[in-house]
Amino acid sequence: MGLNGGLAKCQLMGLFGKSKPKDDTIEQMRVLLDNFQFADLQTFCVETLGVTPAMDQQHLSSIEVLDFVWDQYHKGKIQFSQLKEFALKHHIVSESFFE
To answer: Which pTM was predicted?
Structure first.
């Protein structure tokens, strides 16, 4: 396991070897975002935040939009529940995805 794998494992385990609730949410969010297409990410940003990432629109990539979404999540401007509701409303995943 490389350095990144060890770091991720430490982050998931939490401070005292127990998984924190937020860590579980982050993992769920990561898996959910894997199902989003570029257009879905842009629509989510517009519908939820009222903005698109402030980057060069001609060179905007999925990775940059994902980084923007994660940044907004860590700032508390996006909640996992908003992402979940959007994914269900726009048929990105089905209800069974969350079971």
So the answer is: 0.70
> Of 85, 93, 90, whose CA–CA distance to 39 is shortest?
90
Weakest-pLDDT range from 13-17, 69-73, 75-79, 88-92: 13-17
The encoded tokens of residue 30 equal: 């990561």
Please, are residues 45 and 69 in contact by the beta-carbon 8 Å criterion? yes
Residue ranges per structural domain of the chain: 18-98
Closest CA to 47 of 16, 90, 14, 8: 90
Query: Contact 69/41 with Cβ under 8 angstroms?
Result: yes
pLDDT tens per residue, range 17-52: 444 456 788 899 999 999 999 889 989 999 998 887
Q: Is 37 exposed, middle or buried (0-12, 13-18, 19+ CB in 10 A)?
A: exposed
**What distance in Å separates the CA atoms of residue 75 and residue 29, rounded to the nearest whole number?**
15
